[in-house]
Automatic annotation (TrEMBL), chain A:
Pfam families: BPD_transp_1. It comes from Paenibacillus ihbetae. Keywords: Cell membrane, Membrane, Transmembrane, Transmembrane helix, Transport. Residues 68-283 form the ABC transmembrane type-1 domain. Belongs to the binding-protein-dependent transport system permease family. It is a multi-pass membrane protein. This is Lactose ABC transporter permease.
UniProtKB/TrEMBL annotation, chain B:
InterPro entries: Bact_solute-bd_prot1, SBP. Coiled coil: none annotated. It comes from Paenibacillus ihbetae. This is ABC transporter substrate-binding protein. The keyword Signal applies. Keywords: Signal.
Amino acid sequence: MGSKWNKSNLMGWQFVLLPSALILLFSFYPMIQSLLLSFQSGKGNVYHYVGLSNYARLFSDPMFKQAVLNTLLYLIVQVPIMLMLGLVIAYFLNMPGLKFKGFYRTAIFLPCVTSLVSYAVLFKSIFAVDGILNRMLMSIHIIHEPIAWLMDPVWAKVAIIAAITWRWTGYNMIFYLAAMQNIDPSVYEAASIDGASKTRQFFSITVPMLKPIILFTAIISTNGTLQLFDEVVNITNGGPGNSTMTISQYIYNLSFMYTPNFGYAATVSYAIVIMVAVLAFLQLKVGGEKK
Amino acid sequence: MKKLLSVLLLVSMTASLLAACGSSKSSDSGQSGTGNEGGSASKKVVAWAWDPSFNGAALKIAEELYAKENPGFELEVVDMAKTDLEQKLNTNLASGVKEGLPDIILVNDPNIQKYVTAYPGTFADFTDKVDYSQFSPYKVDALTIDGKVYGVPFDIGVTGMFYRSDYLEQAGFKAEDLENITWDEYIEIGKVVKEKTGKYMSTINPNDEALTSILLQSGGSWYITPDNKGNFVDNPVMTETLRVYKAIADSGIAKPVTGWSEFVGSFNAGDVATVVSGVWQISSIMDAKDQSGKWRVAPIPRLNVEGAVNASNEGGSSWFVLEGSANKDLAIDFLAKTIGGSSEFYERFLKENGGVGSYIPSFSSEAYSQTPEFFGGQAIYTDFTKWSTEVPGISLGMYTQEAKDALKNELPNILNGSDLTQSLANIQKLFEQQVQ
């Protein structure tokens, strides 16, 4: 034991000491503070402890329910679409014979480096009443009157889903592409010799081999979607009604738009934390390696 | 040797970290603008505002006027986006940090009660510092909480109905036909305009509460009662407001828009015949230079309820002084003598930035009687100031945003034809849940 604490080990500890202290101070301390805050209620800076009543309020709060339903809807519809799309695109971009590979890869990854706000504004103008989408549909005579996309509770959600899919598909694709390049080509060769079709190869070799990566992207996408904020605020500002509002926007409203109730806002934040934890746990259970 | 190096590294890193903490503190107090750098005799105040060409420019005018009498007076205007300003103020006040805040801050009128009530003792009392009888009463009402008046009234949002005289003439209407009409008459005119010119009468945006706010205040009512209860159920003005809103949406005379830029774009592109909005909209309307001479202004239409008038208000802001500011007295004196009581200030503010205040003595000045060519030589400011004295005074309360959101939540159902009484009950319930 004593030999373990040699000089180089001690030095190592000296190096991690400072970062650890910073993490404790700027990451864990706020987490505990906000947990304490979630047991308090009040307006502005007049607070008092209310025990669990903030959490009880959560379950009877129709706005919160609406925000959770909206967010879960984005999650259930958008994440699978995006991951499938990313997987398929990555598969095509990984084909040995493809020309202009570099161009396609850059083009598909490019949305991920655009600013969240600027692309949201772009989508807003695409879906505007006299935006390009309506004009296109009208010029090919699919519709006769412009559709107010962002003012319809269903279409507005579709617009948001389209926006986040555009932004994040390339991001997930890069993970898949990297993983696919690690698969030994000889596996495919052997499969071809055995007579497996390309589709069969995709589902029987590529997908199973990518399982850990798919799990990883599913968890980060879930995490990201549960914290969705910029797109919704900039494209629809939660409307029409509150039909596209997300949980993060609700937290923002509670803290900065309404008479500030930071205690309740902290409670809603912890609701997200719990949801992320539960979903990540479920995904690990379902998709993780069985040991 | 290695060990010595690493220890040195560690020490220097820790030191620089501590130094960073220390220096951030000192720079904070520098930002707070208490002006301690220049000693206690400093005559510098710091103000936060959100539009350098409007309220920021107004402060500069005020500074010029005040510095004439008080040499050495210095004002620093910190410009930031409105939402950033509100967010910064909220987080600072809620965390109890007094450093880093300015001496003077601009507050949007619907936020006044919220701030004063949620952060007691934070804002300076102006009750005896300004002669409030010289201001439009509704503006002073918004600043009055428990008999005390906080802050100095600044710009107002008295509303008017801007209209394209050429479109309306084409549809067969004269200026008199638009004077003091009801909203139902407005819709009828709109149908004719749509038929004869193909232009929309107005815009509609179910995500924006500007129109419902205008309608409510014109009937002397608001989303919440003065004691901060929901004002949706058994409120005839609310019922009528939502009936009119639905009628406008159903009649097909309104072009749907989803945001501010589309809204402004609709009249700059000549798509709509009228714009019901605050007086501050003049500058956006005048952006379309090619439409010069075609615009006029009439009073807004009236609700079909007792006591409703053809005048209302949208938006507007006021200046507050922070109680904890080191230069509190100087800041109060500065505001009270300029924005709080100088006709010259309001004349220059109107001429240079197109801003309309609620300071009554300035209304009779030459600046307020100008007749812009853009509006066909109509003395629009004289008209607006006349209407501003007719706007019903209301208490904006501290939960305006919550109430608007509760209404917004139900609005799609109302527009789809659900039972209005039931919808109002739903809104009231939702609102009560939100403000508990």
